[in-house]
Amino acid sequence: MKTTLHKSQTRGYADHGWLKSHHTFSFANYYNPERMNFGVLRVLNDDTVASGMGFGTHPHRDMEIISIPLEGDLEHKDSLGTSAVIRKGEIQVMSAGTGVMHSEYNKNKDEKVKFLQIWIVPNKKNVTPRYDQIDIEKEKKINDFQQILSPNPEDEGVWIHQDAWFHMARFEKEFSKTYSLKKNGNGVYVFVLSGRVRVGDIELSARDGLGIEEVNSFTLEALEKSEILLMEVPMEL
After folding, report:
1. pLDDT category, 5, cuts 50, 70, 90?
2. Metal-binding among the record's keywords (predicted)?
3. How far is CA 120 from CA 83, 123, 175, in A?
4. Are residues 19 and 121 in the same domain?
C-alpha cells in the first residue's frame, strides 16, 4: 500500500475576508508542485463564506464540480436556468462540459456557510452541461459506507463523467470496516470531516487527508466518533 499523508495544517490557506479557504491541492494563489492533484481529484477546497457573501458568476468547462455543505445554506444559480439552495445533508454536482456560468452565495445574512468544493477531471470532454443535487441525509447510514457519488446514473447518489465513487462513513468509536475498491488501479483519498481515525499505522484527525494507492482494499478504524469522506478516483489523468 502506497500512502500520501496531508495533515490539515499543511494545506494552503487564503483569507479574502469574506472567504476563508483551505486548499489541499494547488489552487489560485496557492501553488505547491508536490500538491497538484491525487489522480483525477484536482481540487479539494474547505471553504467558509461570510453571511450574505459568495462567488459571483464565473465560467467553467470540462470539469466535474461537486459541493458538499457542512454548515449553513448555499444558494446556486447557473446559465442552465437552475436556481437552488443546497443545505447540509445534500450534495450538488455540476458537469461543466462545453461551458457553464454559475454563482454560489451564502443565502443567510446572519450565519456563515461551510462547504467542500471538489473538482474531478472528467473522462469525457465537451459533454452537455448538467446540474443535479440530492438529499443524502435521508439515506444516512451509521457504521457503513454510504455511496453518494458514482459513474452510474442508476446507482445511489449523484453521478459524474468519471470512474469515481464517493462514500460517507459515519463510524462510532472503535468501529472498523474494510473498504474494497470498485475499480482496479483506482486510489482512494480519505478526508476526515470530524473525529479521529486510523488506516494501518497512520492516525488521522479532523481535516487530515490520506491518499491510498496500490491496494484492492484497506481497513478504516474510528478511534472516536468520526465522519469521513472517501473519494475513490482513477490515478491517471
Report:
1. very high
2. yes
3. 23, 9, 30
4. yes
Q: What is the DSSP letter of 8?
A: G
Position 198 scores a pLDDT of: 98
104 labelled ligand-binding? yes
DSSP 8-class letter at 9: G
Task: Indicate whether 127 and 150 sit together in one domain.
Answer: no
Give a yes or no: residue 5 inside a domain: no
- Look at residue 47 and give its three-state secondary structure: strand
What residue numbers bound the domain in which 130 lies?
A: 11-135
Answer yes or no: are the C-beta atoms of 116 and 71 closer than 8 Å.
no
Note whether 36 and 105 are same-domain residues. yes
Contact (Cβ atoms closer than 8 angstroms) between residue 172 and residue 142: yes
Core vs surface per residue 48-62: b (16+ CB within 10 A) or e: bbeeebbbeeeebeb
- Is residue 92 within 8 A of residue 85, CB to CB? The reply is no
What does the alpha-carbon distance between residue 188 and residue 206 come to, in Å, rounded to a whole number?
17
Cα separation, 232 vs 112, in Å, equals 29
Task: Indicate whether 16 pLDDT > 90.
Answer: yes
Cell of 106: 451564502
Contacts of 152 (CB under 8 A, 6+ apart): 159
58 annotated ligand binder: yes
H/E/C letters for each residue in 80-149? CCCEEEEECCEEEEEECCCCEEEEEEECCCCCCEEEEEEEECCCCCCCCCEEEEEECCCCCCCCCEEEEE
Model pLDDT for residues 176-193, shown as the tens digit of each residue: 999 999 999 999 999 999
Q: How confident is the model over 105-158, as pLDDT tens digits?
A: 998 889 999 999 999 999 999 999 999 999 998 888 999 999 999 999 999 999
